[in-house]
Amino acid sequence: MTTLDYFKAKTEAYISPRGLMAMIEADPDSVVLVDVRNGPKPTKVKGAVELPEAEVIGRMHELPKNKLVVLYCWETWCSLATKAAIPLLEAGFRVKEMYGGIVAWETLRLPTEPTIGARPVSCAC
């Protein structure tokens, strides 16, 4: 893989928080946002589905294949969204990772809401 190939692939794999917000505002039904963080967390992106990375393989059938699935975790150093993307891509989902995770989203003061713990994905899709 060349450096150019790497950056092209990275561009296809990531979406910025502002780019995601614009996508949601333009067509909210085209995307499902998935919080893949494991363990307790006080807030999440408003409207995000809580699906811990450790449960993705067993529960991916709950996600819609006709929408872009955007995953996020804690921050740029967190690899949970990257790990969760692999089985989803292998199963035929369209997937992107939100760059910067919840930290970037909150830094930009984009909408959040309290987490409620695990719930069926179908409630938010």
Keywords:
125 residues, alpha/beta, Oxidized Rhodanese, domain 1, two-stranded antiparallel ribbon, globular, disordered C terminus
Describe this structure in words.
This protein is of the alpha/beta class and 125 residues long. 34% of the residues lie in helices and 20% in strands. The chain has a single domain (3-123), classed as 3-Layer(aba) Sandwich (Oxidized Rhodanese, domain 1), CATH 3.40.250. The chain has helices at residues 3-13, 17-26, 56-59, 80-90, 101-107, and strands spanning 14-15, 31-35, 43-45, 49-50, 68-72, 94-98, 112-114. Strands 1-6-5-2-4 form a five-stranded parallel β-sheet. A two-stranded antiparallel ribbon has the order 3-7. Strand 5 (68-72), helix 4 (80-90) and strand 6 form a beta-alpha-beta unit. It is globular and about 40 Å long.
Give the oligomer, counting copies of the same chain as homo and different chains as hetero: single chain
CATH architecture group name: 3-Layer(aba) Sandwich
Low-confidence stretches: 118-125
- How many E strands? 7
Task: Write the CATH fold name.
Answer: Oxidized Rhodanese, domain 1
The coarse silhouette is globular
CATH class, named: Alpha Beta
Give a short account of the largest sheet.
Answer: 5 strands, parallel
- Range of helix content: 25-40%
- The total count of helices amounts to 5
Which helices and strands, and how do they pair?
Blueprint: H1 3-13, E1 14-15, H2 17-26, E2 31-35, E3 43-45, E4 49-50, H3 56-59, E5 68-72, H4 80-90, E6 94-98, H5 101-107, E7 112-114
Parallel strand pairs: 1-6, 2-4, 2-5, 5-6
Antiparallel strand pairs: 3-7
